[in-house]
Amino acid sequence: MVNWIGIAAINMAIAVGLGAFGAHGLKGMVSTQQLEWWHTATLYWFVHALGLLLVGILVRLNYTTQTSAWLLQVGVIIFAGSLYAMTLGAPRWFGAITPIGGVLMIAGWLWLAVSAFRLSKVAS
């Protein structure tokens, strides 16, 4: 089984590092729009790293499957990664893949909801 708690902790470290780089390393180098993309990517990375921590705990306790974790992890990489890439100079059309990451993150949360409802049905 994948250690989702450890992966969540690594995600948090990455989010802190990328947030700091955006706040200090990119000033004056990119446009205001690009800096907003960077900040949005970092916010989503932080939030989903915390969510992944919760999901990792729930996986360990057998309250959900790893599917939620995989969807969240791949989703945040695609979502934030595409925004980071555009900030660093990738063509603007690259942003067309950003919604794919968003859909995967939504699917991860919905999978967690389905798992929770299934568990409550079994418990009753």
From TrEMBL:
<dbReference type="InterPro" id="IPR006696">
    <property type="entry name" value="DUF423"/>
</dbReference>
<dbReference type="Pfam" id="PF04241">
    <property type="entry name" value="DUF423"/>
</dbReference>
<feature type="transmembrane region" description="Helical">
    <location>
        <begin position="5"/>
        <end position="23"/>
    </location>
</feature>
<keyword id="KW-0472">Membrane</keyword>
<feature type="transmembrane region" description="Helical">
    <location>
        <begin position="70"/>
        <end position="87"/>
    </location>
</feature>
<keyword id="KW-0812">Transmembrane</keyword>
<keyword id="KW-1133">Transmembrane helix</keyword>
<protein>
    <submittedName>
        <fullName>DUF423 domain-containing protein</fullName>
    </submittedName>
</protein>
<feature type="transmembrane region" description="Helical">
    <location>
        <begin position="93"/>
        <end position="114"/>
    </location>
</feature>
<feature type="transmembrane region" description="Helical">
    <location>
        <begin position="43"/>
        <end position="63"/>
    </location>
</feature>
<comment type="similarity">
    <text>Belongs to the UPF0382 family.</text>
</comment>
